[in-house]
Amino acid sequence: MYIQNLLHIDKITGKKNKAKIFFPLCGKAVEMFYLAKKGHTIVGVEYIEIGVKQFLDENKLSYKKTKHVPEIDGDVYENEENRIKIYCGDYFKFGPTLETNFDGVWDRGGLEAVLIDQRGKYTDIMKSVMKRGAPCVYRSPRLTGRRRTTI
Ligand SMILES: C[S@@+](CC[C@H](N)C(=O)[O-])C[C@H]1O[C@@H](n2cnc3c(N)ncnc32)[C@H](O)[C@@H]1O
């Protein structure tokens, strides 16, 4: 659990009890389940299917592969009980035709995982699905000290 980001959870959720939170390049981030248990709706994007299944299995979450999404060359996995939806496909094909109106973004290590010349597109996609003015808490695993978390 990445406490540094959790310190900013009120900013991510806008202090809402039921915020819609975006996890780009989510991997197996355990915070998805942690925040879902708090009542929030979670949407992740991850292209490694085994990672998506491991996240669900390791957290003992039942799930269904609910639909194929040709736009991202992938599928959607859902745990309806906890309002967790993970798009298993290419983030760079994700966008507002699939999801919009995120109250906030939780990103740990995603920006660094993409090539430098793709980072503009990475953040453009993020902005296109967020509510106007919504915050993004980003944590870079490589930076240390006070620079670790930027908002
Ligand atoms: C550094 S990890 C992120 C870990 C995660 N955010 C966490 O907090 O544990 C980067 C993840 O991005 C995924 N990834 C990389 N490029 C992607 C893309 N174009 N579309 C979807 N997922 C991608 C990788 O498979 C990997 O799981």
Characterization of this structure:
This protein has helices spanning 3-6, 9-13, 31-37, 49-58, 110-113, 119-129; strands at 20-23, 41-45, 64-69, 74-79, 84-88, 104-108, 136-139, 149-150. By secondary structure, it is α/β, with parallel strands linked by helices. It has a single domain, classed as Vaccinia Virus protein VP39 (Rossmann fold). Strands 3-4-5-2-1-6-7-8 form an 8-stranded mixed beta sheet. The longest helix has 11 residues, at 119-129. It is globular and about 30 Å long. The structure holds S-adenosylmethionine. S-adenosylmethionine (SAM) binds at residues 25-27, 29, 45-48, 51, 90-92, 108-110, 113.
What's the short version?
This protein is of the alpha/beta class and 151 residues long. Helices cover 27% and strands 25% of the residues. It is globular and about 30 Å long.
Tell me the radius of gyration: 14 Å
- Compounds present? S-adenosylmethionine
Q: Give the CATH architecture.
A: 3-Layer(aba) Sandwich
In N-to-C order, the SSE pattern is HHEHEHEEEEHHEE
Q: What CATH first level would be assigned?
A: Alpha Beta
Distance between the termini: 18 Å
How many β-strand stretches?
8
The secondary structure category is: alpha/beta
Largest sheet: 8 strands, mixed
* Discrete helix count: 6
| Average of the residue pLDDT scores | 89
Percentage of residues in helical conformation? 25-40%
Q: How would you sum up the global shape?
A: globular
Describe the strand arrangement of the main beta sheet, using strand numbers.
3-4-5-2-1-6-7-8
Provide the CATH superfamily: Vaccinia Virus protein VP39
CATH fold description: Rossmann fold
Count of separate structural domains: 1
